[in-house]
Amino acid sequence: MPRVLVIDDDAALRFTLEAVLGDAGINVIVKESGLAGLAEFDAHGADVVVTDLAMPDIDGLAVLEKIRTQDPSVPVIMLTAHGSERVAVAAIKAGAYDYLPKPFDPEEIVHAVRRGAETRSLRLENARLRAAAAMGRPMVAESPALRRVLDMVARVATKDVTVLLTGESGSGKDVIATAIHAHSRRSGRPLIRVNAASIPGELAESELFGHVKGAFTGAQSARLGYFQQADKGTLFIDEIAELALPIQAKILRALQSGEVQPVGGRTETVDVRLIAATHKDLSAEVRAGNFREDLFYRLNVVPIRVPPLREREQDIEPLVRMFVQLYAERYGMGAIEIEPGLIAAMKEHAWPGNVRELENTVARLLALTSEDTLTLMLWRSLNEPGAPTSAVGSGPSDPGPSMPLRARVESFERTIIAGEFKNAGENQSETARRLGISRPALIEKLHKYGLLGR
User: Fold this and answer.
1) Residue 334's pLDDT is what?
2) DSSP string for 238-260
3) Architecture of domain 3-126
4) How many Å apart are CA 372 and CA 339, to the nearest integer?
5) d(CA 165, CA 316)
6) How many CA atoms lie within 13 A of 381 on its CB side?
7) Taking the alpha carbons of 206, 212, 213, 215 in that order, is the dihedral positive or negative?
8) Fold category of 310-448 in CATH
9) What pTM does this model have?
10) Contact at 8 Å (CB) between 9 and 32?
11) What is d(CA 77, CA 97) in angstroms, rounded to the nearest whole number?
C-alpha cells in the first residue's frame, strides 16, 4: 500500500483528500503546513507527496525543492488554485510530477496518486537492478523488514551523508552499501570496499591512506590508499570497530577536512563518501574506550540497521532459489528441484550466520547431492555428528582442484555415503533414510563406489 503525504493549510481540503484517498485503499498522512510536511517526510518518508502551492509558511515550490534534494525518486503532485496555471507549469519544470487545479475531481486525484506510486515503485526497482548489476546477482528484498531498509536507502543515497550500517555478521551490510552507492550521484565512480578486520594493524595506515616510495622498508614504489582510490566515489569500510585508535583519528580528519596524508608524504585532498559497517555496538565500544566518541558521532549521521535473516522469513525461499541457481551453474549441474519440506524447515531455522550461512548451506547441499532434488533429509544428515563440515575446501575426500568437477563431487559423495553406511551399521534402509534417498538409489550407489561386500 503506497504511503502518501498530503500537505495543505486548508483543513476542509485535508479532510477531503484523506477521505477520498483512504477510500481508494491508500495510506494517507496529512500535515497542515509546508514545514510540518517536510518534518514528516524527513522522519518517515513517503511514496508520493501531494502539496498545495500557496501556503503561509513556505510554499509548494519550496517543499518541492526540499523533497527533490532529499529524494528525487518521490513524485510530488501540486494542487493549484484556478488561474495559477503559469506557476504550476514552473513547478513542472522544477521537477513536479503533476499538477491538478482546484476544485479537483476525486477520481482524477486518485488516478494521479496511483500513477505517481507506480512511478516511485519503478524508480526503486531501477535502483535495485543497478545494485544487482553492481553485485553481479539479484537483490532479494521480499520481506517488509528489508523493504523498510531499502526505503531508507532510497531516501539517503542521493545525499552525500555518511552512513553507519549495523547488524549481525552475514546479514548483508555489504549488499546495502552497494545499493546506497548504486542509487547515489556517485554511482558512476568507484565503490572501494575494505574489511578492516583483515588489515594487519601495522599496515592499516598505509592501506587506508597510501605511502610514497621509500616510506618504509619494502616500500619500493608509491601506492594509493583506499581513500585515494575512492576519490569522487564511495569508500565502504566493513568492521570499522576493528581499527586502532590512532587510525580512527586519521579517518576522523579525513571526514572533517577531506584531507589524508600518505605515509612519508604530503597532505592530499580527497572527495570521498564514507559508508561504515560493524556488527558491534559502537556506543558500548565508546564507553569501553575502544572507539573514539567524536568519530562515532561523525559516522552515525544516518544509522541503518540491517535486520537478521530470522526477521526476514519472506526472503528465505527466494534467496535459496537464487543460491541454488548460482551454485548449480558454478558446479556444472543441470536443473535442481527443491523439496517443499526443505524450504519450510529453512524458514523455521534461526540462521545465526544469516544470509552468509544460508548461502554456504545451499552450496554444501549442492556439492554433496547426487540427485536432482535437494531434500530435507539430506540437510538433516549433514547436521548429524560425523557429517562433513566443509563442502568446498580441499580435504581427505577432495581429490584436489586439478581434478574435474564431477570427480570431486563424486569423491565427496562416496565419502558421505561410506560414512553414513558405516554409522548405520551397514543397514541399507537406515542409510537411505539418513541420506534422504530411496533404497534402490542407495544400492545403485553402493555398487558404483564398491561399498558392498567390503
Assistant:
1) 86
2) ETGGGS-HHHHHHHHHHHHHSEE
3) 3-Layer(aba) Sandwich (3.40)
4) 10
5) 21
6) 25
7) negative
8) Helicase, Ruva Protein; domain 3 (1.10.8)
9) 0.65
10) yes
11) 6
